[in-house]
DNA sequence: GATTTCCATTAGATCGGTCTACCAAAGGTC
DNA sequence: GACCTTTGGTAGACCGATCTAATGGAAATC
């Protein structure tokens, strides 16, 4: 079965290929009578527009690339879906890759996307991304790259939560409960997001009397439930029993709940737990989890907008956009009281 | 900044464009000395391969399309990630769309993907998909489409769990507990997966004495936590108090837990809860959730394999591949005993 | 009536690769 | 020396759109 091209259509409609092309794009130069005739020929022959051919000539592709680490974390899933939605409404298709937080894999995916002529890339950088690792590919092609949720370079656009504010909000809440000590558990050790959250927590705790330690479980923990369990185990096995455990993310907090219970400790009663992200699950857990909402939908939407702007005008200076977080207080901390 | 083409490279290396092209594809006809010279010119000029141009000539695109309903359901997230992985290792890039279980949106995404010249499409059909809604686009382009996890047509390939077996396993387990009544809650009403699960449950319950009702909450419930809460509310508000609630999926079960507790009923003690999918969360819930694992990784992997086979040989007859499920018994049903 | 403007339409180059068909020179065979 | 084969390489058509510059004819202007 031969594919139907614009040539076939134009021949059937008795016009030139150029005319058919103009009809396709709804040019006002073609009178309705002719246009109708061409459109009829299209449906009759079962014509399918070949975007690749068009894009080749126009040297754009109407596709965006999106690389995220892992969508089994609902936070990233929500982010991804919003970005897809924004891209689609702007007429773009989305090429996705999951780096699984592996720089090597991420490089390959960047390379592929560039070869596929994407018009822009949204990158949620794998931990350990550095400019020179990513740069070569980006430089060679001059594709605009926007960093989402984490960043490693000041020279590229960035959209993410205001992690410092988020940390501060959480710290103030925890100290207002009267806790004496808190630890941070989980999260990708060298990511900007983690560093900023720690910074926020530290400044938020200053002068409050709460002893805060972010170093207890940092190494080798990951941004999922397993990382949470492992982190709790490591802390408690050191004989440390903080008043409040702060999880790097809700995904981590879920593992923290599980590990606490394995040790017959009830979250929210024996140890408070609080977290970042506020995924839908947070509210449905028992006890409901106190979490700082970082609004992935907003971030995704803004990221897509900003990238599309840059595609239109590549000369813009690098931009940073921070989304304001909001603390959601729930039973996992609200019921806290000093041990007797 | 002008883009560097094969022409530029060949000129710099003092060979013809044809030779450069052959080097690119590692042809054995070109001796290593020449190849090296060409490769040097490539890196020196910062050449980036233009896949679109190549694909245009070869009339393939090395991209696959994937349309799923919603990846905030971890089951679909896992499925999606496996498919991406399989596609990437086979050298394909993935174009994704999230239908949000909306047929209209799904049609648009199919259309776009076909225009983008994808070599094949993996479709997790939105509920209400019918052949004629999808067919037009598919027919016109003759792109191979494979159905994942749900199906609506016997003429297209299908890979999914053996839902009937899954239902039977669950039914037998529930009846072995001595339950007298069970209801099914949640799930997309007209999907093949739900119909099959009900069929499996019904045959599994036959002769066991367990009264099973799947009609109580069917209408208008969805495949997520909200659907679960709503479903439980509707059932209990009718004055029905089953011994066991069977959730369409783990995502639904999470909402069921929440709604039961809102009514001061403890899942696994006052009412047993069991479910399908066995996402990672199932084990971490309190009480851990009995669920039939349907192995999204296996399904995703097989789906990608099968689609790639069909792309290689489009003349194959439509294939069906069912993945065997496995029941994971946990505390949400294990602790069940008759009310006194 | 001559010239200009406008309208509808088109021929042909172009995007950046791949592929077919062909060629020139070197080496081998009788 | 004539003929065949192998090696290394190339010219130019081609994929299916878009876009520029041009054209023929009708209407409008002087």
From TrEMBL, chains A, B:
Keyword match Endoplasmic reticulum: no
Signal peptide as annotated in the record: none
Location of the HTH lacI-type domain: 4-58
Protein keywords: DNA-binding, Repressor, Transcription, Transcription regulation
GO molecular function: DNA-binding transcription factor activity; transcription cis-regulatory region binding
SUPFAM superfamilies xrefs: lambda repressor-like DNA-binding domains (SSF47413), Periplasmic binding protein-like I (SSF53822)
InterPro entries assigned to the protein according to its UniProt record, in alphabetical order: HTH_LacI, LacI/GalR-like_sensor, Lambda_DNA-bd_dom_sf, Peripla_BP_I
Name under which the protein is recorded: LacI family transcriptional regulator
Origin species: Arthrobacter oryzae
């Amino acid at each position: 079965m031969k594919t139907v091209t614009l040539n076939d259509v134009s021949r059937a409609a008795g016009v030139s290929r150029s005319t058919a092309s103009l009809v396709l794009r709804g040019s006002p130069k073609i009178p309705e009578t002719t246009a109708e005739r061409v459109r009829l020929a299209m449906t009759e022959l079962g014509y399918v527009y070949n975007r690749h051919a068009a894009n080749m000539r126009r040297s754009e592709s109407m596709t965006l690339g999106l690389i995220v680490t892992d969508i089994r974390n609902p936070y990233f899933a929500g982010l991804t879906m919003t970005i897809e939605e924004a891209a689609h409404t702007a007429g773009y298709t989305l090429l996705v890759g999951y780096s699984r937080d592996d720089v090597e894999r991420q490089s390959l995916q960047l390379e592929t996307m560039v070869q596929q002529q994407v018009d822009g890339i949204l990158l949620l950088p794998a931990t350990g991304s550095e400019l020179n690792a990513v740069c070569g590919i980006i430089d060679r092609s001059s594709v605009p790259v926007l960093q989402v949720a984490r960043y490693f370079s000041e020279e590229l656009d960035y959209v993410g939560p205001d992690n410092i504010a988020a940390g501060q909000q959480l710290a103030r809440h925890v100290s207002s409960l009267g806790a004496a000590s808190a630890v941070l558990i989980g999260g990708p050790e060298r990511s900007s997001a983690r560093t900023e959250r720690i910074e926020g927590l530290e400044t938020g705790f200053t002068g409050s009397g709460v002893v805060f330690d972010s170093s207890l479980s940092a190494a080798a923990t990951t941004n999922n439930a397993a990382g949470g369990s492992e982190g709790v185990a490591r802390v408690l096995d050191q004989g440390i029993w903080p008043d409040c455990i702060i999880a790097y993310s809700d995904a981590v907090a879920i593992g923290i709940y599980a590990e606490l219970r394995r040790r017959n400790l009830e979250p929210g009663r024996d140890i408070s737990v609080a977290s970042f992200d506020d995924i839908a699950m947070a509210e449905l857990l028992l006890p409901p989890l106190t979490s700082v909402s970082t609004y992935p939908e907003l971030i995704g939407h803004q990221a897509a907008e900003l990238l599309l702007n840059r595609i239109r005008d590549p000369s813009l200076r690098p931009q940073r956009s921070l989304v304001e977080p909001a603390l959601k207080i729930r039973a996992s901390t609200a019921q806290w009281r000093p041990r007797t």
